[in-house]
Amino acid sequence: MAAPGAASIVGSPVRLVQYVVVRSDLLHQLAWPVGAVMTQACHAATAAIHLSYEDPHTQQYLAELDAMHKVLLGAPDEAALSGLSDSLTQAGVSHKLWIEQPENIPTCLALKPYPKETVQPLLRKFKLFK
User: Fold this and answer.
1) Residue 87, CA distances (Å) to 35, 36, 80, 123, 130 in order
2) Would you say the pTM of this structure is higher than 0.70?
């Protein structure tokens, strides 16, 4: 697998995607309101874009404002989300683990925009958020 971010953005257009992974237990077991869970995803996605703002993929993603592509995946619980964050860090994949304050609860994470084929294999075990 090529190193994250190694896909060329010069020449043929690269389809970029921003993955957001949300803890599904917040909604289904811990009974958080839907709006609160959606807000966590928004926080993480915005933070990941901010942290990677100078990255060429992020710039391309933002330049194609009306064609942004996000995928929202579900992690079953905090342990799965934290494990994913560790795996992404080890693989050199830029992401933001969002920790809700002041409760100090990891709620979701978002990757910076990447070519789908670069990061999708690392997220294969996570299904679409329901």
Assistant:
1) 28, 26, 10, 10, 23
2) yes
